[in-house]
Design goal:
Oligomer: single chain
Strand order of the largest sheet: 2-1-3-4-5
Radius of gyration: 19 Å
Structural class: alpha/beta
Shape: globular
Helix content: 40-55%
CATH superfamily: Glucose-6-phosphate isomerase like protein, domain 1
Largest sheet: 5 strands, parallel
Distance between the termini: 55 Å
Number of domains: 1
Length: 253
C-alpha cells in the first residue's frame, strides 16, 4: 500500500532528524534565542514550497513573537499554476541572481538579527543572495535543507557557493534530494514528497527549543493562543497583546 510506504518514509526521516540533528538544532536555537531576547528578529525566508515552514511557524496558534516572515509573493506557494504568478515564472525568478538583493532592500536589519533560510537543494540564486546580504549586514545565517543529499550539486550562483556553504549553522532535513519518495508502477517519476514534512518537523523542534531557552532566561514570550477553546475568556486579549508586541518590534521600539 503506497499510503503506508509514504508514511514509513516520513517516519524514517523524522527518526533520522532526531538521531543526527539535535545538536545543530540546539545551536541554531541558541542563536535565535539571543536575537529575540535582545528585542530583535529572526527573519525567515524561502521560495516556493519552502515558504510553507515560514507560514507554519508564525503567525499561528502556539507560535510567538520574534519570528519575522519575509515572503515575496511571486516566490511563494503558487496556486494559480499557469497564468499570472504561475510555475513557469516562479522557476525563472528563483534563479535570477540579484533578485534577493532587491528583496533585502525592503527591510531594516540589525547585526543582532538572525536570518533563517529554508532551501531544499541550496543551489538557487534568490536564497543565496539573501544569505550573502544577511552576512554582509553582520547577521548570523542559519540554513535548513537537505544538506547531505545536496552535497556536490552545482550552485547556480556566481559566488560558487550553495546556501549550505554560506550558513553559520546548517540543520539537515534529511529528505531525499529528489523530494518525492514513493515509486509508482509504469511511471518514471515518484510521488509523495517529504521535504515539507521534514521542514515542519525541524521547525517545531527548533522553535520549541528557542522557547525553552528563553523561558529559562526569564524572557516573557508573547504566544498566540487558541481562540477556539470554550471558557478561555482572556484568549482574545492575549492575542491582542502578542500583536501589539509585534507592532512595537516592527516599528523598532
Amino acid at each position: 500500500m503506497l499510503a503506508k510506504q509514504w508514511l514509513n518514509n516520513a517516519r524514517d526521516i523524522m527518526s533520522k532528524i532526531e538521531e543526527t540533528q539535535l545538536e545543530n538544532i540546539s545551536k541554531a536555537a541558541e542563536v535565535m534565542a539571543d536575537s529575540i531576547a535582545r528585542g530583535r528578529w529572526v527573519h525567515t525566508f524561502g521560495c516556493g514550497h519552502a515558504t510553507i515552514p515560514i507560514e507554519e511557524m508564525y503567525p499561528r496558534i502556539g507560535g510567538f513573537v520574534g519570528f519575522h516572515p519575509m515572503i515575496e509573493l511571486p516566490l511563494t506557494f503558487f496556486t494559480r499554476i499557469t497564468g499570472e504568478m504561475g510555475v513557469h515564472q516562479f522557476v525563472f525568478l528563483e534563479r535570477v541572481e540579484g533578485y534577493g538583493i532587491e528583496i533585502m532592500k525592503g527591510y531594516n536589519f540589525d547585526p543582532h538579527d538572525t536570518m533563517w533560510v529554508f532551501s531544499h537543494s541550496g543551489i538557487n540564486n534568490v536564497n543565496i543572495d539573501v544569505a550573502l546580504e544577511a552576512k554582509r549586514k553582520g547577521m548570523k545565517v542559519i540554513a535548513f535543507g537537505s544538506a547531505a543529499e545536496a552535497k556536490g550539486k552545482q550552485t547556480r550562483h556566481s559566488s560558487g557557493k550553495t546556501i549550505f556553504d554560506i550558513a553559520d549553522i546548517v540543520v539537515d532535513t534529511c529528505a531525499p534530494i529528489g523530494d518525492a519518495s514513493v515509486p509508482l508502477k509504469n511511471h518514471q517519476d515518484k510521488i509523495g514528497p517529504v521535504s515539507t514534512m521534514a521542514f515542519i518537523t525541524c521547525v517545531w523542534m527548533t522553535v520549541t527549543t528557542v522557547a525553552e531557552m528563553l523561558a529559562e532566561r526569564g524572557v516573557k514570550l508573547y504566544i498566540h493562543p487558541s481562540h477556539n477553546v470554550p471558557g478561555d475568556t482572556t484568549a482574545r486579549q492575549r492575542l491582542e497583546d502578542a500583536l501589539a508586541e509585534y507592532k512595537l518590534r516592527i516599528a523598532g521600539v
